[in-house]
Amino acid sequence: MSGAPFEGADDVVLPFAVEPLDIRGKIVRLGTSIDTIIARHGYPDAVSRVLGEAAALTVLLGSSLKFQGRFQLQTKTDGPIEMIVVDFDAPDRLRATARFDQERLDAALAAAPKTGDLIGSGYLAMTIDQGTDQSRYQGVVALEGQGFEEAAHEYFRQSEQIPTRVRLAVAEQFENGTRTYRAGGLMVQFLPTSPERIRQADLSPGDIPEGHAASEADPVSEDDAWAEAKALVQTVEDHELIDPTVSSERLLYRLFHERGVRVFEGQSVHEECRCSESRVMSMMRRFAPDDRRDMVGDNGRIGITCEFCSRFYDLDPVAVEAEIARAEAESE
């Protein structure tokens, strides 16, 4: 296995390839970045774990962008965790937020729920945004009680038609009386170059022709290399993905040393919000004057809190109107 920068480090996504199996993949470890996001909001443990899974998946997918754009994962569902939004601004900025119903969450936790139970039914949208409406792409997966791993498999099966397997894990770490969160993720994809190996069993071969029994249908045989890769990925334990004593490089070696794994240059990741006073002012311009007046509190100020980083913006209504008038005059 070839070496790479950031060996053993947290908050790094590490690409790799196992060429004899025709697979490429990524492994990510989130430490300070995800803990900062969770601690800032004070989320309950169940919400923290679900958000951590979403963040790990977002980094795995968003780090594939080859341009300065944004990858966003968003859920909107009927479960106790009603909404999750994770933004990854390529190449390295991560932010996330969640909305949940505490009463419904408490009731659900009595039944030892899985991630899918807490999310519920609705949709998962994954959006790639290069900064203009024309360069915006969105894929949507229906959520019907499945977790993020299964939703990712469904997305690649339907939208990208790439055989993919994902493993995600989140856990708390206790050290010197301090509790912190860690998240990890592993994604492998089967990307053969020869045409005869591109066919895959993950896609349905279609309806059986009329007059043929089910046993007479010719199934699409699964490539042996992909079957082996999937079996290896399924052996990964949750603790291996988040254990600080097991580096990403060591885990990849454990999995693929018999075939040989090649590790590429890693990319560091950090928590950083995109909010700013100028962005807040841009948002304020989208409201009608009457709506802006309704935002003024008893203290005569407009208060806005960023849902992602909890930063509070204390705005003077007079200054807001003056700035909006100046911007509108410049645009004429």
Given as residue ranges, the uncertain stretches (5+ residues, pLDDT < 50) are: 200-208, 214-219
Work out the helicity level: 25-40%
Indicate the overall shape.
Answer: globular
Number of strands: 14
Tell me the β content. 25-35%
* Overall pLDDT level: 88
CATH superfamily of the largest domain: Hsp33 domain
What does the main sheet amount to? 6 strands, antiparallel
The chain-level structural class is: alpha+beta
CATH class label of the largest domain: Alpha Beta
How are helices and strands ordered from N to C?
A: EEHHEEEHHEEHEEHHHHEEEHHEEH
Radius of gyration from the alpha-carbon trace, in angstroms: 23 Å
Quote the CATH topology of the largest domain.
Answer: Hsp33 domain
Give the N-terminus to C-terminus distance in angstroms: 60 Å
- CATH architecture of the largest domain, please? 3-Layer(bab) Sandwich
Set out the fold topology.
Blueprint: E1 12-18, E2 23-30, H1 32-41, H2 45-62, E3 70-77, E4 81-89, E5 93-100, H3 102-109, H4 115-119, E6 121-129, E7 136-144, H5 148-160, E8 164-175, E9 178-190, H6 195-198, H7 224-234, H8 238-242, H9 248-256, E10 262-263, E11 267-268, E12 270-271, H10 277-285, H11 289-294, E13 302-305, E14 312-315, H12 317-331
Parallel strand pairs: 5-12
Antiparallel strand pairs: 1-2, 1-10, 1-11, 2-9, 3-4, 3-6, 4-5, 6-7, 8-9, 13-14
